[in-house]
Amino acid sequence: MEASVRGAMPRFRVYLALSVDGYIADENGGVGWLDPYFGPELGFHEFIKTIGATVMGRATFDQSLEMGKWEHDNPRTIVMTHRPIDDPPSGVEVFDGDIRELAASLRADLEPGGKDIWLMGGGKSIQPWHETGLVDSWELYVIPVMLGAGVPLFPPGSPALTELQLASSEHFDNGIVELKYEPRK
């Protein structure tokens, strides 16, 4: 999926990798198992150019900080959390409110530039966006690894999600399968 065109309504895009058995992180919350599979053929650098803001949960934010110096490709990052962040890095905003209000604000801010919003992180932070019908696309990279345990895409007990329709799929020589879904119309 390409970025929104200038003046078009920005889209909320879930873009993430998961193991064949449905985990987005290992038992310790780590994602190092993804390292051997990250390559230019997956188009991450092209994807990130289409993004004007990133929205993530607190666990993803904290994990990003633990990985070292905060380096994010987007000038604006919104962290959904009920807890304050002491001395947040430049460009990081804390949000604790109604995501519909955040969505409207982001769309208004980003519409003139034609950039989209990346919903980054796990199911706990993504699920409310989906439940309110705000996710415009699911861009999933299935990695040919079976973790056996870890952090699932959605936590156990999550409410049922609506049906999606396949927009496109592609496979790569390294065994990764890219699946792009949209809400069923």
Summarize the structure in words.
With 185 residues, the chain is of the alpha/beta class. The chain has one domain: Dihydrofolate Reductase, subunit A, CATH 3.40.430.10. Helix content is 19%, strand content 30%. The chain contains four helices and ten strands, in the order ββαβαββαβαββββ. The chain has helices at 44-49, 58-66, 99-110, 123-131, and strands at residues 12-19, 23-25, 51-57, 77-80, 92-95, 116-120, 137-143, 151-152, 164-171, 177-183. The strands form two sheets. The protein has an eight-stranded mixed β-sheet. The chain has a two-stranded antiparallel sheet with strand order 2-8. The mean pLDDT is 87.
Helix and strand layout, with pairings?
Blueprint: E1 12-19, E2 23-25, H1 44-49, E3 51-57, H2 58-66, E4 77-80, E5 92-95, H3 99-110, E6 116-120, H4 123-131, E7 137-143, E8 151-152, E9 164-171, E10 177-183
Parallel strand pairs: 1-6, 1-7, 3-4, 3-6, 4-5
Antiparallel strand pairs: 2-8, 7-10, 9-10
Helix-strand sequence = EEHEHEEHEHEEEE
Rounded to the nearest angstrom, the radius of gyration is 16 Å
How much beta, percentage-wise?
A: 25-35%
* Corresponding CATH superfamily: Dihydrofolate Reductase, subunit A
CATH class: Alpha Beta
Nearest-integer average pLDDT: 87
Major beta-sheet overview: 8 strands, mixed
| Tally of DSSP β-strands | 10
The strands making up the biggest β-sheet line up spatially as 5-4-3-6-1-7-10-9
**Dominant shape:** globular
The CATH topology corresponds to Dihydrofolate Reductase, subunit A
Helix content: 10-25%
Number of alpha- plus pi-helical segments: 4
Q: Termini distance?
A: 17 Å
Chain oligomer state:
single chain
Tell me the number of structural domains: 1
Please identify, by name, the CATH architecture: 3-Layer(aba) Sandwich
Unreliable segments (pLDDT under 50, ≥5 consecutive)? none
